[in-house]
Amino acid sequence: MAQQPLTAAEMEASLHVWLDTEFTFFKVEELAAELTALARDEQDFILGWIRRIASTHITLAWQFGRRAPALLPRMERRLLEAWAVHTCDVFDRTGLQNALRVMEQVDTFDEDQHQHDAAGALFEDIAPVLGNFVCGLSGRRLRIEEGDAAWTDGERIVLPPLIAALPNLDDNFQLAKITVALLWAQTRYGSLRVDHAAIAAGYADPERALTRLYALETLRLTARIAHELPGLHRQMQRLRTQLDPALPPAWQRFETALAADQATLDDSLALLGAAYNEVDCPQWSDQGCLRPDAIAAARAIRLDKEKARLRIKLAELLEEHAAAQPDPQAAAETPPELDVTPRDENGQLDFDITLDDAPIAPPDGVRQLLTSVYLDFGEIPPEYLVPAGDGEYDPNRVLDQPDDPDAVWQGTYHEIGAELYPEWDHGRQHYRKNWCVMREKTVTPAYDSFYRDTLAKHAGVVKHLRKKFEALRDENRLDKRQTQGDEIDLDALIEALADAKDGREMSDRLFVRLHRAERNIAVAFLVDMSGSTKGWINEAEREALILLCEALELLGDRYAIYGFSGTTRKRCELFRIKTFDETYDDEVKARISGIRPQEYTRMGFALRHMSKLLNQVEAKTRVLITLSDGRPDDYFDVYRGVYGVEDTRMALLEAARTGIHPFCITLDREARDYLPHMYGAARYIILDDVRQLPVKVTDIYRRITT
Amino acid sequence: MNARTLDPAHHLIEKEPYYEAVGDEILLFEAAWRQQIPVLLKGPTGCGKTRFMEHMAWRLKRPLITVSCHDDLTASDLVGRYLVKGGETVWVDGPLTRAVRAGGICYLDEVVEARKDTMVVIHPLADDRRTLPMEKLGLEVEAPPEFCLAISYNPGYQSVLKDLKQSTRQRFVALEFDYPSAELERRIVATESGVSEAVASNLVRFAQMTRNLKGSGLEEGASTRLLVHAGKLIADGVSPVSACKAAVAQAVTDDDDMLKAIQELSSSIF
């Protein structure tokens, strides 16, 4: 039996609370009256989203509530949800005004135009698949991004948020795939090798010329696809007959002319004059659109950079080659002659590099650069093959260098060079995408006597730890009474023989086997560097880290230590103290000594980043140990309270899902009731005396690793 | 029907195993065998290392004993051990000892997977001593000139833990294997699976697409072996798209998005 719809009064009560009407004065009575007409599950759907959006912004929730009841019969719920989430994303990124605009766009929602939206392919759903798809096709690696329409600039392929020209999801996906393939083909088969502005300038109506050139190119690329990807071409023909009118006769002639296997951009350009005079110009629903400005801009940046990179790489290649030569003097006399021959073999681009007529194998990086250069010119221009001389290029400008985190920060909210992490919004029940702006920094080392003092102060503990950890290390043991093994277990054999003499059944467990448990553990320590650790907690943390490192060095496990702190989502900072690759040297010791309390405790991003780092390390067991002094907190931000607890919980769940064992150590005098919930996915321990810390950590270690 | 039971130490391969030489690996191997130098085969999975060994065993008319190494493989698994039979202990030779005694070719497949201590056993066999010490018997077996030791190793695993030690690798003549060129691979797929040249050519193109994905979500592209599998399915009447899905896509990945993308690639070609 269907549930009874909610009455207006019931709904008003909740709406008053969610929309904070005491201050906002929204007229929830009208909204509630409108909702009474709906079925219970429709009411629940809309009310649920009002509540979730209200946690982001009350005005947005109110606007959603006013529009949603009218949209519900026309719009698929999946799309309504996508619209709501998109509005929240826009709010996160650019603020209320733009979000309201997105909210309003839905008013112009035209049912006819959107009749297939229910079956539309959402960018979010198709992007991962098509990203891999386009990566599998040969040529330059293209990124897939979301934007206003379908177009490409030769480095990325932009797709609209929704592709919904056809009444079923599969066909819409196929349409998106064909669009991507056509946009890819523009890069692969040289459509972008031309200055569109210059060509268009030769015609009275530049716009008309460009449209026709694009159509000619679409014909040419379609023929190329028919040859290279026949399966895709069949789909293309099928969808085009459904969606697009037949070609005008004049254009059929162009089609035939461009169908030759080796037709190039020049062939299209040769036909452009004739096409310009045609009244009609065909358009296909899969063709995307031409953005000459974006193409020119991307190309301008790329050309110089790749020329420099290629020349540097070639210089490196030559150097390696020369080093491998047995007779270095002979090689230096005449400059070596490099020659590159592109091969388009079976649809795959490859390059043969010869050095003074002797072939050398190009490394992967060089091959990719050559591919990219070839796609820009249709050949490798000779000046690209001159290896860079000493000091000719400033490597910092040519190669991607990590930006100095502080320089980027300086007084601005730029997100350049930072890594972005999502954050779980408990109220919205959805992630805030790219929310935390995270930068890795290094702790300023403090070269003082802290390390020596700590060892002296805790001499007893160190000795105890050494013993404990050495016991952990020695895990090889002989398993006795095994059915198989390297040696015979004499005790078992004698017993078995006695049994046999006795007439009893003889055991077959007669062997000993050496059980060799190779330790294969990677552990990351995440240390709270928030302001609240100031004083004795900070000192205890540093001491504990020194003791831990001493112990871990004995075991030989790989470990990393990072500290976290931050102010607001825009300034999330992770402090490198020791990476997995670094050795425990004086520098690391000085960095541990240099750990100073910073700002607030935003934990989600730190956990997410550490999980990512841990997952890059190859190990059988991955452990993430967090050391903090309590509740997540941030400056004037919702992070304080439930939001922070839920985000931390979610980040721990994510880590556990990828196979990491999270473990949390909280230094807290009052065992708070939210801890079991927050650490749901992790095992945790609450210490009220920080001096227990180093010893406790060994216990944790034993529990996890045995 | 009776399945044949073979003793690999005395069994010679009767029929020529199909193998297309990519370079001069056959000559190199023969020379190394004559000069009694052990051989290391490097290369990604499924590019023909094992087939090459079978072919060489046939060519040199020696028995081939293959040991697939796993992380629990110990020295006694190779050399031999005492077993208890009715109150007596009996020594049983391991595959390596049998190969040495029979003067055969011992092929240790994916040798980095084995425990570190097994390496030490093969060291004296792999240098000019050419002896196999049998510690538990207190004996040494001298390898006859026909004996040959070959190991294989996949450098693509890129793991510090699974790297071959210099002391081991510097005892061997190394032959590098890679996916064959498109032309050659087409011929291999066509010959092995019985599909037409055109289908084989499309399969090879498909494989190259998956190899483009290596490093961006795929650990390893489709190997020649997988193409042969797909080809056999196609030759048996399965549609090319289903064959690619079952034999290639599902074999290289479990990731949903990646599976779908590979599917789309194959359906674009066929």
What does this structure look like?
The complex is a heterodimer of chains A (706) and B (270). Chain A is of the alpha/beta class and 706 residues long. Chain A folds into six domains: 108 residues, no CATH class; 170 residues, no CATH class; 105 residues, no CATH class; 30 residues, no CATH class; 41 residues, no CATH class; 187 residues, von Willebrand factor, type A domain (Rossmann fold, 3-Layer(aba) Sandwich). Chain A is built from 28 helices and 19 strands. In chain A, the strands form five sheets. In chain A, strands 9-10-16-15-14-17-18-19 form an eight-stranded mixed sheet, with helices on both faces. In chain A, strands 2-4-3 form a three-stranded mixed sheet, covered by helices on one side. In chain A, strands 6-7-8 form a three-stranded antiparallel sheet, with helices on one face. In chain A, helix 27 links the parallel strand 18 and strand 19. With 270 residues, chain B is of the alpha/beta class. Chain B has two domains: 152 residues, P-loop containing nucleotide triphosphate hydrolases (Rossmann fold), CATH 3.40.50.300; 88 residues. Chain B is built from eleven helices and nine strands. In chain B, strands 2-5-8-1-9 form a five-stranded parallel sheet. In chain B, helix 7 packs across helix 8, helix 7 packs across helix 9 and helix 10 runs antiparallel to helix 11. The longest helix of chain B is centred in the C-terminal third of the chain and has 16 residues. In chain B, 44% of the residues are buried. The mean pLDDT of chain B is 87. The interface between A and B is large, with 34 and 37 residues. Chain B: Belongs to the CbbQ/NirQ/NorQ/GpvN family. Chain B: This is ATPase AAA. Chain B: GO terms for molecular function: ATP binding; ATP hydrolysis activity. Chain B: Keywords: ATP-binding, Nucleotide-binding.
